Structure formats: C-alpha cells, structure tokens
Amino acid sequence: MTNLRLLFGLAFAPLVACAGDPNDVVVQLAPEVISSIDGTLSVHALALNDRDPISKGKAIDLTVAYTDRNGTAHMIAPISGTTDERGAFDAKFAGLTWDGTGTVTASVLGGKATGEATFAVLDRTPPKLTIIPPANNQVRVNMTTTINVHVTDEIGVSEVFLESSAAGGGGNGNRQRSTIVASGSTDVMVPFDYQFNDTQVGQMVTLYALGTDLSGNQAAAPSITVMVVQ
Fold first, then answer.
1. What is the SS3 assignment for 200?
2. CB 25 within 8 A of CB 106
3. What is the DSSP pairing of strand 59-68 with strand 79-82?
4. In this predicted structure, what is the pLDDT of residue 5?
5. Which parts of the chain register pLDDT below 50?
6. Is 88 helix (H, G, I), strand (E, B) or coil?
7. Which residues of 38-59 are buried (b: 16+ CB within 10 A; e: fewer)?
8. What are the structural domains of the chain?
9. How far is the CA of 18 from the CAs of 28, 57, 136, in angstroms?
C-alpha cells in the first residue's frame, strides 16, 4: 500500500525546474498575425533541458528578422533578460508596422540552444493625404490651376482622387473629379490640373482628396476651400 501511494504521488507531482543547462527553446507568439496599426508582438520563450524546464536565472536573448513585402529589412531592437523559476521569459516587441513577415529567435548559452517562431504583419494602415492650397487660396478663371496632393504610405500609394465642388449646388455640373495612379510610391506629390469658367467667378470651391494604398486601405485628406477670381 505504501508503494502504491508513493507511485501515485510521483505521477502527479508538480513539474519542478531542473538545474541542468538548456538544450532546447520553445517560442510562442501572440498573435502570430499582427495588424500594422497595432504593430506589437508578445513573445513567450521557454528554455528546456530534455523537455524539463530549467532553473531560473539563465540569460536569454530575443532577436527579430523582419522584412516587408517590398523586400526591405527593418531593424527591431533585440530584447535580453533572464528566465524565471519556470525557465520562461516573456517580452513584447513594438514597431512592426510594415506589411511583411518575420522570425523571432530565442537563444540561451550564447546560442548553444535556440528556438524560433514566425509571424506575419498585415497592412491595415491607411495612407496620409494633404491638399496643398494654391496661393492666397485663390484660383483664376479660365486658367489652368495645378492643385497638388501630398500622399505618404509605408507600403506604397496606388491611386489618388481629387474632386472639386462649387458652392451653390447645381448638381454634377459644378463638380470635377480626377484620378491619378501613383505607381506605388511611398512619398509622392500628385498634381491635378483644373480649369474654372466665367460662371464660377466669386464662388467658393471645396476640394476633396481620397487616396488608396497598395493594400486597398483608403483615407481622405482634410478638405480645403478656394475662391474663384477673375
């Protein structure tokens, strides 16, 4: 009976960290798919010796290899620390804001034991747009006026739309809309040429801009209002 109790106790004893050096590292990521808007990744690394957690106080290093979908590598600062009494180390990486993929590597004993896990970042960040107003916020009638829209996006700009709408209604007859393909530039000034006729002299014209990036995210610029003058 005593032997049975002893065996039963051993079978259900809590897992205790061993004192040996680690020979394996398990890395878990949360989440494995990240939104570029959040851009943070939680890492749980567990150092093991033949499947048993090691004792606390072992130095551990976490590094990230991260490349966006354009093939550009982005540097993410490494994180170092020590394992706890369970042989675990938890950390959080930030700045993962480019659409792409990466690998987190955890190493102990100067790289004698390592483990890794991969993650993906999905572009959810819309482009940023600004309409550059003309001089004195005025446009001259029967002259070609160039309205520039400045657009930036960490992956690339796909299309930019600019629309003018004259005050006083009149339906679509007082609206002009243009579209320009931005060819994937990450920082671009997009020019739009407009002409206003005699009937619009003295009117206030509101300009609206909308941009789309290569991932399909859209954003609008703050609208501006200009005066049509003779």
1. helix
2. yes
3. antiparallel
4. 42
5. 1-16, 169-173
6. strand
7. ebebebebbbbbeeebbbeebe
8. 14-122 (2.60.40.1930), 128-229 (2.60.40.730)
9. 21, 12, 75
| Whether 177 contacts 161, CB under 8 Å | yes
Q: CA distances (Å), 122 to each of 69, 76, 160, in order?
A: 10, 17, 22
Reduce the DSSP state of residue 174 to 3 states and report it.
helix
**In this structure, what DSSP letter does residue 216 have?**
S
- Predicted pLDDT of residue 169: 46
Reported residue count of the chain is 230
3-state secondary structure of 135: helix
Structural contact between residues 226 and 138, judged by C-beta atoms closer than 8 angstroms? yes
Which amino acid type is present at position 220? Answer: A
CB 132 within 8 A of CB 223: no
The Cα 211–Cα 197 span in angstroms is 27
Name the token pair of 171.
């339906």
Find out whether 156 and 214 touch, Cβ atoms under 8 Å.
yes
pTM, rounded to two decimals? 0.71
